[in-house]
UniProtKB/TrEMBL annotation:
It comes from Melghirimyces algeriensis. Pfam families: DUF1292 (PF06949). This is DUF1292 domain-containing protein.
Amino acid sequence: MRLEFQEERLTKKLNILEHKLGQELTLVDEEKMDQEFKYQILKELEVDGRHYAILGESEGNDPDAYIFRVMNHGDDDHRLEHVVDDMEWDQVADALDEMIYFDD
């Protein structure tokens, strides 16, 4: 008798922000309202029922990507929050790696 296990993927690809706002976003620092940053949406995904956006800077030479949690405050009101919890960040990073691996 041979048992096979299929690992259930808990990651789902999304495009909610890109569909509503386009591929480029301008974020305003809430503490310093005069500072704006332009980002490009690289990926959107859902991990364990939470929506995340992976953003990269549109201008400049920064090769880093940033993980934001997308909070829905109504139909057209989406807010981005930095992921500061290390375990949550690792979980999203692992899900992103899985998504990239299985999508290619």
